[in-house]
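Researcher: Here's my situation. A collaborator sent me these components and asked whether they could plausibly form a single complex. I don't have experimental data yet, so a predicted model of the whole assembly would be a useful starting point for our discussion.
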Amino acid sequence: MRFSVTYRIAAANLAEARLRAEGIALEQTVEVPADVVPAGFIADQIVGQIVEIGAEAEGRYRATLSYSPESAGFEVAQLLNVIFGNSSIQRGIKVIGFAPGATLAARFPGPRFGIAGVRAACGRPEGGLIVPVLKPQGLGADALATLAYAFASAGADIVKDDHGLADQTSAPFRERVEKISAAVARANAETGGSTRYFANVAGKFDQIEGNLRFAADAGVGGLLVIPGLLGFGLVQRIAADASLNLPVMTHPAFLGSFVQAEDSGISHGVLFGTLQRLAGADISVFPNVGGRFGFTEAECLAIAKACRTPDGPGLPMFPSPGGGMSPDRAAAMRAMYGQDVAYLLGGSLLRHPDRIADTIAAMRRVLDTA
Amino acid sequence: MRFSVTYRIAAANLAEARLRAEGIALEQTVEVPADVVPAGFIADQIVGQIVEIGAEAEGRYRATLSYSPESAGFEVAQLLNVIFGNSSIQRGIKVIGFAPGATLAARFPGPRFGIAGVRAACGRPEGGLIVPVLKPQGLGADALATLAYAFASAGADIVKDDHGLADQTSAPFRERVEKISAAVARANAETGGSTRYFANVAGKFDQIEGNLRFAADAGVGGLLVIPGLLGFGLVQRIAADASLNLPVMTHPAFLGSFVQAEDSGISHGVLFGTLQRLAGADISVFPNVGGRFGFTEAECLAIAKACRTPDGPGLPMFPSPGGGMSPDRAAAMRAMYGQDVAYLLGGSLLRHPDRIADTIAAMRRVLDTA
C-alpha cells in the first residue's frame, strides 16, 4: 500500500499547480525528466502519483501525492528524503500532511512508550507531567547532579538535560549521565517516587552507539535527541531497541527554519507532531505560545493535536511546550492543552534555587486541580 | 580563542537590535535569563558576547557574537547547535557569517582531501570534474553497475549514486556498493583511468558504521552524505578517519528550508559552503542557477566563493552545481565558476544511453578549452 504526502503548492492556476505536482512526483523519486523514466515498475510504481489536487486559496493549491513504500525503504531518513528532500529547496512547496498507509505503518511503528507508557514509567497516571530542565551549560556534572536531586526530590516527573549539554569538558557526557542518574536514583529511593532522568544524547557520530548503551547501563530513564542535528534516524534507532527500552524526547533545535515561511517548509503540526511520532518520539518539545518564540496558539494546538490524535502514526505521544513556562501560566496552559502534556520548566525554576520544591509543588497543585 | 557568528537581525532600531543580540547570546548558550546566569566562568565565558553591531538596511541589523569553544565542545552537531539551534526557531534571525578562530580551527580541521586532494585522487590536475549520477531509484544493482561502467569508461571523474538510492529492496546498499565498485574498477583497469565511485551512505542509524567500513572494503572512491538527514556529524566522522581515507561529497536534500526566507535561516554561502567545509566535506552539491531550483547567480557564486576561499575553514573544497546540467551549458558554467568545479550530470545523460560516451567527451572538450 502506498503512502501519501499532502503539499501546499504556490501556483497561478490549477494547470500550473498540476505541472508543479507532476514535478514533485518526479523530483522526490526518480529525479529524471518524465521522458527518461524507464517503463514498467519504475514508471508505474516508483514515480509519485497525484491522488488529489485542488484550490485552497488565491494562488495556493493543495496536492496529495502517493509514493511507493519501495522509495522510502526502511529508514526514516530516506522516508523524509521522499517526503521533502529536494522539494525543500524549491520555492513555494510546503508539506502539510502525511499518511503512512498500512505498509509504512508496519515498517515505522513509531513511539515505543507513547503517552500511556510514559505515564506508567513515571508513575503519573493522570495530569500534566512536570519536566524541569538541567542547565545552564558550563555547570559541572556535580552541580547538575545536585540540581537533578533537588528536582527529583521535589516530585518532578522527568528531569531532562538542557539541549545545550553535549560532551563538553565542563560536564562530559558519561560523567554527567552517571552522576545525574545516581542522584535521581537516590532521590527516588528516598521519596518512593519514579522521577526519570532523560540524558541529551551527545558524542561524535561514532561514539553515539556506545554512549546509548552507557546511558542505559547508568540507569537513565529516557533519552533526549535533537533530530535536526543528529537525524531522525537516531530516534527510530532508539525507539526500535527493546534492549535499551527507553522513551525518547525530541528537541526542536535547528528545525526552526522549516516553519519560518508561510508558503514553504513543513507545517507546525506535521514537523513537531506527525514526523516526530513517525520517527518514534514519545515526547515532542516545541516552543510554547507566549514565550520568547513566535508560535501562535493555533500552531501550538495543531502540534498538540498531531501528537495525540488516535489516528497515528503509532501511539499517541506527549506534546511538550517549553520556553518561559512557570506555575503562573499553568492553569491557562492546562485549559488550553488539556491533561496529556509534558511541561518544561526552565529558567524560572533556577531563579530561586531555595524554592525549587515550592515551585514544583505549586505547579503540581495547579495541574491536578480539576 | 573564541569563535564568532554573524547574524542578520530584524529590528526597528539599534536599541532593539542590541536587545535581540543579547537574547541570542543567552539563548544559544545558557538558555536562562540574564539574572539567572551564575557569576564567574559561565557569565564571563559561556554566555555569548556581542563583538560588533550595526545597521545594514532599514529594519535590518548585523551583529557579530563570539562564543566560547567550550560551548561547542568537539562535535560539529553541538557547534551548529550553538550557531543556530534555538535561534532557528525565532523570527527574523539569519546566520550570515562564521569564523572558527584558532581553537575551533584546530578542533574542526575540515576537508581531508580538499580540491587538491580530490584532483590527485581522480587524476584530473586541472579543469572541471565531470560527475554523472546513477539513477533512477528503482533500478537494480546490476543495471546501476552497468551504467556506472559506461560512465567510467567514458572518462567521468566521479560517478555518484543519486541521493535517493538508500537501502531499498531494489538495490540494497551493500549489493549496490559492491557491484558498482567492481564495475568502476573494471572500467579503470581497461582505460587506465581513475574514476571514483561515491556511494550514498545509507542504512538505519546503527548500520551506518558497518556500512562505511563495508563500502571502504568494497573499494568505493568516496562517500555521498546528506547532512540534512543524517547529520553533519557523519561528515565530520568520515573526514576524520584516516583508515577510511575517503573524500566526502555532501548533498543539499532537506536543507532547502534554511534558505527560503529572506530574514531568517542561513545564507546560501554559509550553509552550502562554510558549514559543509567546516564539517569536512570535499565537494558540496547545490542547485545550479537556471535549473529547476530557484537559486540566483549571485547565490551560486556566493556558495562557490565560500567553498573555495583560501581563508578556510580548512582546505578549499569543490562547489558542485547540479540540476539540469548538460554540455550545452558547460561553457557558460565554466565562464561563471572557473576551473575548480565538480559538475553533476543527471537526467540529460540518461536520455540517450547510447550516447553517454559522446556526451561526456563533449562536456570534457568544453571544460578543457581555454
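Model: Some features of this prediction you could bring to your collaborator: The first helix of chain B runs from residue 14 to 27. The mean pLDDT of chain B is 96.
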